[in-house]
Specification:
Heat Shock Protein 90, six-stranded mixed beta sheet, globular
Length: 178
């Protein structure tokens, strides 16, 4: 995966598959601690212990059971390559929180990439889901949430091309603020 936005898309697609109707994506850059943290929280069906074990067990990353995916192991690998780690909190019926940390200054650190395109892809694919994005760096916070956006749009369709384009640009300029 060449950038973090694609990892985020992949992890959020798991949340969609898990029937979430609210997906929160939080990105925090901490220059002092030299970390970048990505947190993706959903209110989907969650994972039982067996699934959680399989997702986190490096054995299954290399000798994978057929039909068992790579999304989470790939993100874990990207984080670990940058002195970071991945953690998951999930319970059946209680949703899932996936957190990946990276050392920002690490030479293998991937760029954030086109986060606007990721958000717009998610919205276009599943407009009924509410997405929240929060980006923080030092004193700066950028936030967008589709539930609020939809209320503002009244009878306009959030998946119409000009609106998706607006959202994409809003996100990308919001996160490149500093
Ligand atoms: N947010 C989530 N909620 C519930 N289950 C999840 C979630 N994310 C992952 N899983 C479970 O972990 C498995 C592995 O996920 P992943 O590594 O992305 O591969 P894939 O999506 O291709 O199966 C999924 O098939 C699913 O059973
Ligand atoms: Mg997946």
């Amino acid at each position: 995966m060449e950038d973090l936005s694609l990892h985020i898309l992949d992890i959020a697609e798991n949340s969609i598959a898990a029937k979430a109707d609210l997906i929160n994506i939080e990105i925090v850059e901490d220059e002092r601690a030299d970390t970048l943290t990505i947190r993706i929280t959903d209110n989907g069906v969650g994972m039982d212990e067996e699934t959680l074990k399989r997702v986190l067990d490096p054995f299954f990353t290399t000798k994978r059971v057929r039909n068992f995916g790579l999304g989470i192991p790939l993100l874990a690998q990207s984080a670990e390559e940058c002195n970071g780690r991945l953690s998951i909190i999930s319970t059946p019926g209680g949703g899932t929180k996936i957190q990946a940390t990276f050392q920002r200054s690490h030479m293998d650190m991937k760029p954030l990439g086109d986060l606007g395109a990721t958000i717009v892809t998610l919205i276009a694919g599943h407009p009924e889901i509410d997405y929240e994005l929060i980006y923080k760096k030092a004193d700066y916070t950028y936030e967008i949430n589709t539930a609020e956006l939809k209320r503002g749009l009244e009878d306009q369709d959030i998946t119409s091309p000009p609106i998706l384009d607006f959202i994409k640009n809003h996100v990308n300029s919001g996160i490149s603020h500093c």
